[in-house]
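I would like you to sit down with the pair of lines that follows and say whether C-alpha cells and residues agree.
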Amino acid sequence: MYEFLDYQAQDVMTRDPVTVSPNATLTELEQIFESHDFNSLPVIDDNGNIQGIVTKLDLLRAFEFDDEHTFPPYQEIMKRRVRSVMSREVRYVFPRTRLPRVLTRLLDTGSKSLPVLDDERLVGIVAREDVMRGLRQAVDGQKATDDESTL
C-alpha cells in the first residue's frame, strides 16, 4: 500500500483529454457532453493554454429563469459561446503532484476531476476513478511508473 505514496498524477492521468474552445457554441458543448460521459471539460485556446473549465451545471445555468422570460429562449441561448458560461478559476494539479495530494485536492474541492497542467498547458486530466485505480494498483503491489518520457 505504501507504493501509493510514490504515485504521481502523471502515472494515472488521461493524456490528450477531450477539450472545448472558448469560442465553441453551447450547442457544440452540449454535443460533446452527450458524446462523452463527462461532467466538465477544460476550455483551451488555440495555443493549448487553459482558459477555464466548463461543467454541465454551467450549461444549465445559462437557462436560469429571469424576469424577462417566462421560458428561456433555447435557440438563442444555445448560440452563446462557451466563454460566456465557463469558470475562469481553474483548480489543477501538476504532472508530478503525488497522488495522495491529488486525492486531498479532489476531496477538498468536491471536483470529479482536475486538469493536469505543465505551466499553463494542459497535459492531462486526473479523475476520481484514476485515483481509485492507483489505490488498487498500490494494494496489488504495483510500482508507479517513473517514465519522464511519457510527458
Remarks:
- The domain at 2-144 is CATH 3.10.580.10 (CBS-domain).
- Residues 146-151 have pLDDT under 50 and may be disordered.
